[in-house]
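Justification of computing resources. Each target in the renewal requires a structure prediction run like the one illustrated here; the chain below, 150 residues long, is used simply to show the kind of job we budget for.
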Amino acid sequence: MPHSGTSTPNELDVHGRPRPLVARTRERHQQIHERIERGDSLRAIARELRLSRGTVLRFARAADVEQLLVAATHRPSVIDDYRRYLYHRWMEGCTNAAALTREIQQLGYRGDVNTVRRHLRPYRTGAIPAGGPAAPPDRPPRHRLDHAPT
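Resulting structure tokens:
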């Protein structure tokens, strides 16, 4: 089933751009199902598309691409909990990714400066989300171990 060209909010990143994973998932689903209809074996499809047989099987079992996109579009990011903070600090004039990384590390961020740089890259080109980024998805709180368990 071809994609209509419209994207749901979960198929876009925080800056409103299409997520590459969504496009790749749609393309792979279409390629695999075309080959299945043609009568190709899962092993032949995997070899031709250079995918594992497990991946081909997962795509083949999915009734439609939307089943696969649930996992692709609801995947949490290590920076989700800090997007609003970064937005507000950027709007206050702090544009140094290393400094911002140190600030959010004090708040519990466990990622690295490169993730923060990637998040801020659109800000540098003027693509700052109007009103700030969307709230992070609901998920259970993460607990940080400050010491080794006994």
